[in-house]
Amino acid sequence: MRPLAVFDIDGTLVDSRASIHRAACEAARDIGLPEPDYDRVRQIVGLSLEHAMAVLEPGLDAPTLARFVAGFRASFNRMYQEGHEEPLYPGAMETIRRLHRDGWRLALATGQNRRGVARNLARAGWADLFLSSHCAEDGPGKPDPAMLHAAMAACDACPATTLMIGDTAHDIQMAINAGVLPLGVAWGFHTVEEQQAAGARHVARSFAELTVVLDGFADLTRAA
């Protein structure tokens, strides 16, 4: 049976560390708050935006939180209007192309909204590689397993043939909640130790290392 790899986007395939921190800082300034340091911002990446901003600044009342969320979105919109595009991590495109060529089914599960997903699927070649994409706007966000359940349904897969690849504890917890293999990567927002504490089966230090783990999973899946 063909295995399914579900990828997170931010911090896993796309290096959005600088842009997410910039948007959080601009949104904070807009409502009169000090700019949050990067270590605080990185902890909330992967959650749905409204949840993430409430975790980042838990003392806000509802109207101020709504302004905070709107300011974050507005900052990203300004960046995109200026022609900004977050770069892919080196090796990301080669890896997903190789998996597709080797017969893997591929899907996306992200804390981005549907507009953000569309921007990424507009990258050269992406729309032809991923069978489905799922985001917090579609239903409960991470670590709820809803996105992974939807990905498996869309790709005709089951937990035994599916794995989740992400860079945060939220990705790992979502995978565990869905009963799929939780894999982490070391180059994104959460540390190796944070992902291991959440239950990651393996945290890859490079795409080459990740590929070795995926090849082993594919061999086991196809032999079952």
Keywords for this entry:
224 residues, alpha/beta, Rossmann fold, six-stranded parallel beta sheet
Summarize the structure in words:
By secondary structure, the chain is α/β, with parallel strands linked by helices. The protein has two domains: 4-15 and 87-223, Rossmann fold; 17-81, Orthogonal Bundle (DNA polymerase, domain 1). It is built from eleven helices and six strands. A six-stranded parallel sheet has the order 3-2-1-4-5-6, with helices on both faces. Strand 5, helix 10 and strand 6 (202-204) form a beta-alpha-beta unit. The chain starts with a strand and ends with a helix. The model has no long low-confidence stretch (mean pLDDT 95).
* Structural class category: alpha/beta
Going by CATH, what is the homologous superfamily of the largest domain? HAD superfamily/HAD-like
Let me know the largest β-sheet: 6 strands, parallel
The poorly predicted ranges are none
Strand content: 5-15%
The helix content, as a percent range, equals 40-55%
Order of helices and strands: EHHHHHEHHEHEHEHEH
The quaternary organization reads as single chain
What is the overall shape? globular
What's the CATH architecture name of the largest domain?
Answer: 3-Layer(aba) Sandwich
Strand order of the largest sheet: 3-2-1-4-5-6
Helix segment tally: 11
Counting structural domains, the number is: 2
Q: Kindly provide the name of the CATH class of the largest domain.
A: Alpha Beta
- DSSP, total strands: 6
Annotated CATH topology of the largest domain = Rossmann fold
Mean pLDDT: 95
